[in-house]
Amino acid sequence: MDVALQGSLLDLTDEMTLCDLAPGLRRTVIGMGAWVEVRPGWLAAGDDLFAALLHDVPWHAERRKMYDSIVDVPRLTKFYGAGERLPHPMLGAARDALSAHYRAELGEPFATAGLCLYRDGRDSVAWHGDRIGRSKDLDTIIAILSLGSARTLTLRPRDGGSIPGSSQKSLRFPLAHGDLVVMGGSCQRTWDHAIPKTTEPVGPRISVQFRVAGVR
Ligand SMILES: O=C(O)CCC(=O)C(=O)O
Ligand SMILES: [Fe+2]
Hints:
This is DNA repair protein. By secondary structure, the protein is α+β, with helices and mostly antiparallel strands. It is built from four helices and 14 strands.
């Protein structure tokens, strides 16, 4: 390989790029009609996207009614509905690539983008399924692009039962900068997921969740 070619290859890998989705995409059938797919390093060199989102998104502190009091949800969020302008062109490109890839299985395009900012290891999201809307009764696909510090997505059966074929209480999917994780089939109805707190010294992480219209 000559020096000039080597130089241009290095330049290419320095540039923020959505890699091809299919190579490296691995599906795990987790049981009860659910599956999880991971594509490590889908977005290469995503530092600028992370920095832009951290700075440009009008992050909200969520408040949620729990029992008799209103509590702060320990993370910041911003939801972009169908047709709303996304805060960075790369998110539109990611949504369109995901829509093309999952079109046959999903039957419709991804339409909304939910963004969450976990400021450090104390921020988290508790066990839940994304069951507001059609996903309460129907299969769906939710695709998540993870940016910034590595955190772990955990899943456990909603009914408190054991994990098919495993002695573990929950499944763990560690997510690094640029990784894609996709939950599909019955996953939102039959499993719960969470981003647990961690005592590891981690910096901020941004999660971008793409969903079809009418699913939260
Ligand atoms: O942070 C994540 O990747 C998951 C977020 C999530 O489950 C949600 O907002 O519904
Ligand atoms: Fe969720």
